[in-house]
Amino acid sequence: MPDGINEFTFYLALHPLRETGANYSQDSSAGFVARYVSEQTPVADHFTDAAEADITFLKTSVKLIAHSEPRDQLLSVPLVRVRRTATSGFEIDDSFVPPCLAIDASPVLHQRLRQLIDALQAKVNALYGFHREPTKNIIEFRSGDIASFWLLHTASAAFASLAHLYQHSALHPERLFQELLRLAGQLMTFSKGYALSDLPAYRHDDPGPGFARLDTILRDLLETVISTRYFAIALEEVRPSFHAGRLDSGKIDDKTMFYIAVSADMPTAELVEAVPARFKVGAPDDVDKLVLSAMPGVRLVYTPQVPPAIPVRPGACYFSFEPRGGLYERMLQAQSAMIYAPSGINDLQLELIAVTS
Known about the structure:
The protein has 357 residues and is α+β, with helices and mostly antiparallel strands. It is built from 7 helices and 18 strands.
């Protein structure tokens, strides 16, 4: 590779079919001079007892040429791109997408498809989590959930179509491009970040840039249009009865409301009475002191009617954090919440929820 050039594209080339003849060479050692080269191959007779005989076949004569070599008089397709590494070595550029007849012929297309399917699955799960579940496995949509409903419909339908293409990856890449265009167009319903004119056209001779552009558009749209007012905060039992959750300052502000969902193997009336009285909530250092001194933490208020943004789980009771007082302020400043749940409560399950304004 000449100095100053950091990448080379190699093409698979062959001669065009000449109407005047001279389309094959009898001498295979003559080099790249014709479309075909004759080749003698022994062939068995499958129908009689005759011995094997040499049959002349015409074998396609192809050559790998660099993009810097002349190919105006040849038929050629880009096959692979090689780039220079930082150590002056060479490597195959995995992001290059050559013209191909099957999705799995391009590893990068197959990988991007898998990543998009995984992203859609995560978004579908998140959207399901935004809605109430008054009865097990039944999702309730309210009048204010129209946008969320159509987002869920769009993501679920796209997942089904793209999963089919992933499982049958011998299908043509244009099928994949069409489904990606469909998904991008549908997501543009919910965002003005992109215009319809931004959608690329499929080019079979150079599909890479179009697929890369669509991948960027889809990732941006999936991150922007499926926003959340509700999100769960992961709790870790750092030691018996003590559950810690990190409060991300990038998501949480002074208007964020916190709720804890509690379910256990005990009557609801007893659970509603026990949680505010026996649980301790606050910053980690404060909760340690509260447990030792038997003092109350951040006040927990039983909330039979939670905000519409919170999905209601069957059998769970919800308690809100009273957003005032020194203990609450120190919890926000520490960017960490500790929940002490005393032992002796069977099948206890906790979920910490934040609702943004």
